[in-house]
């Protein structure tokens, strides 16, 4: 029986494991990917202060520290169910079952699709898949592509592909349909980008930030958005063009593109065909919570945090005894925040086992402060209003504890 | 636009979902069971957010705190022999 099993070897899971091992706990880390590091592995961007964030280097530091501490990490194993048992948890995997007293779920985030007719053709992929192919597997995704969906993540990954020498025609919106909704609405896309623009290093986002201060300016900026797009590192970003269809017989051959109004309506007679051999779709991220759900954890819906989130507090505890969560499963934020949250979770788990160690009490508080600090200084933010979302969650956790004692 | 695929594993289109909603005038859960949208090989990891969005669009049901269309184990595809092996271990 392990003291703790950690599902997910991303920045959150690994930094939690390191803390647990520092306090000499019996730890097992499980991840279904053949390499440790999670989504960190694909990341490469320049911070506003000019420094580069290189996910492979960051991963190396974490895995080296973990291995110095003799951390047991099993890769290429999928967890398909977790059960609460009397004295802990039973973790079901495709390589047998493992039992532990405590469980940390650090499974990160997954991508939402923004489907456009033709999105099932070979050659269409999510923007995250393009990131993994480019930066992790070092495979060229195609000869010439287009990115459908304009958000912080797709802008960052488009830049990564550009650095790797992949040819991108442009970034455009998906055409409006019942599923693409806000992703297809130029004003809403502009709104969202501009609220986080002060953080962004890129010229495009900074442009958004400048014009975006006043509501009226934002409206004008969408209305008078240049016909040929704004350029980011030489690549056009079109807030006023949308793809209605991806074409091809056995493989992507082209996309059909229209000009759109500031509300995302297609303009008749502007139809154009753009030849590409791959398409990246970017519909945003959502917390991957399936295991918390089957473990019976209560949930709270929070738009600010990115969707349905397992109820938890700042110490990364859920209302279920012994069940902890950390990283993007608690809300979509940058890798630095996930790593800082993992540290809190690890210390909080150690504290629960070792009980009454003053040093640990202090360390948990310090680590929680560090999360707040990292959040405030984050250079990448996926959702505006993250702070509000976090505060609300704290209340929801307190409420859940109250009802529990009342029962 | 209605011929757009929503659930890739089970090949369910937006049209299938809309028609089912109209014909049976039913809840999101019933639409899911009737069309199998989100119940395929990937366990809904690819389409869950869009299935939720479509369901909200056609039924008008707003997202509450509970995860719509409950998550069921196994959350990853596993072979029957794996599941069976487990039963023996217990
Ligand atoms: C496509 C994509 C691109 C991103 N790009 C950036 C970026 O450029 N910059 C940035 O700051 N943030 C980015 N993010 C956000 C990213 O989620 C965080 O940066 C950070 O990696 C979150 O850390 P984590 O430890 O919570 O989760 P992750 O790093 O996602 O790690 C979770 C791990 O859990 C494993 N796992 C999940 N389910 C199971 C299971 N059932 N069984 C076994 N293992 C499982 C996964 O294989 C994964 O390795 C991106 C996210 C995604 C999805």
UniProtKB/TrEMBL annotation, chain A:
<dbReference type="InterPro" id="IPR051691">
    <property type="entry name" value="Metab_Enz_Cyan_OpOx_G3PDH"/>
</dbReference>
<dbReference type="InterPro" id="IPR036188">
    <property type="entry name" value="FAD/NAD-bd_sf"/>
</dbReference>
<dbReference type="GO" id="GO:0016491">
    <property type="term" value="F:oxidoreductase activity"/>
</dbReference>
<keyword id="KW-0560">Oxidoreductase</keyword>
<feature type="domain" description="FAD/NAD(P)-binding">
    <location>
        <begin position="2"/>
        <end position="149"/>
    </location>
</feature>
<dbReference type="Pfam" id="PF07992">
    <property type="entry name" value="Pyr_redox_2"/>
</dbReference>
<feature type="domain" description="FAD/NAD(P)-binding">
    <location>
        <begin position="230"/>
        <end position="342"/>
    </location>
</feature>
<protein>
    <submittedName>
        <fullName>NAD(P)/FAD-dependent oxidoreductase</fullName>
    </submittedName>
</protein>
<dbReference type="InterPro" id="IPR023753">
    <property type="entry name" value="FAD/NAD-binding_dom"/>
</dbReference>
UniProtKB/TrEMBL annotation, chain B:
<dbReference type="InterPro" id="IPR007419">
    <property type="entry name" value="BFD-like_2Fe2S-bd_dom"/>
</dbReference>
<feature type="region of interest" description="Disordered">
    <location>
        <begin position="61"/>
        <end position="90"/>
    </location>
</feature>
<protein>
    <submittedName>
        <fullName>(2Fe-2S)-binding protein</fullName>
    </submittedName>
</protein>
<feature type="domain" description="BFD-like [2Fe-2S]-binding">
    <location>
        <begin position="6"/>
        <end position="56"/>
    </location>
</feature>
<dbReference type="InterPro" id="IPR041854">
    <property type="entry name" value="BFD-like_2Fe2S-bd_dom_sf"/>
</dbReference>
<dbReference type="Pfam" id="PF04324">
    <property type="entry name" value="Fer2_BFD"/>
</dbReference>
């Amino acid at each position: 029986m392990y003291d703790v099993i950690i599902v997910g070897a991303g920045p959150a899971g690994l930094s939690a494991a390191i803390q647990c091992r520092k306090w000499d706990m019996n730890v097992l880390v499980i991840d279904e990917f053949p390499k440790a590091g999670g989504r960190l592995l694909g990341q490469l961007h320049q911070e506003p202060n000019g420094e580069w964030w290189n996910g492979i280097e960051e991963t190396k530091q974490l895995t080296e520290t973990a291995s110095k501490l003799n951390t047991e990490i099993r890769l290429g194993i999928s967890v398909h169910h977790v059960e609460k048992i009397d004295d802990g948890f039973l973790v079901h995997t495709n390589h047998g079952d493992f039992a532990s007293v405590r469980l940390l779920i650090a499974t990160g985030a997954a991508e939402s699709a923004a489907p456009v007719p033709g999105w099932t053709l070979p050659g269409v992929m999510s923007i995250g898949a393009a990131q993994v192919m480019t930066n992790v597997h070092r495979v060229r995704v195609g000869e010439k592509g287009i990115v459908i969906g304009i958000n912080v993540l797709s802008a960052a990954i488009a830049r990564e592909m550009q650095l790797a020498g992949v040819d991108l025609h442009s970034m455009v919106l998906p055409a409006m349909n019942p599923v693409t909704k806000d992703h297809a609405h130029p004003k809403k896309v502009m709104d969202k980008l501009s609220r986080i623009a002060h953080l962004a290093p890129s010229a495009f986002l900074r442009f958004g930030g400048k014009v975006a201060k006043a509501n009226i300016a934002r409206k004008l900026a969408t209305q008078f958005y240049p016909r040929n797009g704004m350029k980011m590192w030489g690549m056009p970003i079109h807030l006023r063009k949308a793809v209605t269809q991806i074409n091809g017989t056995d493989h992507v051959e082209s996309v059909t593109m229209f000009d759109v109004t500031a509300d995302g309506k297609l303009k008749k007679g502007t139809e154009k065909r753009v030849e590409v051999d791959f398409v990246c779709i970017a519909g945003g991220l959502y917390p991957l919570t399936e295991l918390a759900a089957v473990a019976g954890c209560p949930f709270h819906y929070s738009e600010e945090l990115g969707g349905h989130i397992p109820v938890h507090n700042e110490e990364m505890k859920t209302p279920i005894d012994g069940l902890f969560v950390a990283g993007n499963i608690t809300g979509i934020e940058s890798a630095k925040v996930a790593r800082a949250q993992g540290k809190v979770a690890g210390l909080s788990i150690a504290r629960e086992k070792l009980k009454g160690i003053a040093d640990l009490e202090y360390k948990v508080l310090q680590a929680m402060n560090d999360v707040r600090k990292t959040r405030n200084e984050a250079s990448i933010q996926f959702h505006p209003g993250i702070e509000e979302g976090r505060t609300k969650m704290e209340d929801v956790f307190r409420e859940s504890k109250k009802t529990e004692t009342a029962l | 636009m209605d011929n757009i695929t929503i659930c890739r594993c089970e090949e369910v289109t937006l049209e299938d979902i809309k028609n089912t909603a109209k014909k049976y005038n039913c809840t999101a859960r019933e639409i899911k069971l009737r069309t199998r949208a989100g119940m395929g090989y990937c366990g809904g990891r690819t389409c869950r957010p869009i299935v939720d969005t479509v369901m909200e669009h056609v039924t008008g049901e707003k997202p509450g705190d509970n995860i719509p269309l409950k998550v069921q184990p196994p959350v990853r595809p596993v072979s029957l022999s794996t599941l069976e092996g487990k039963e023996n271990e217990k």
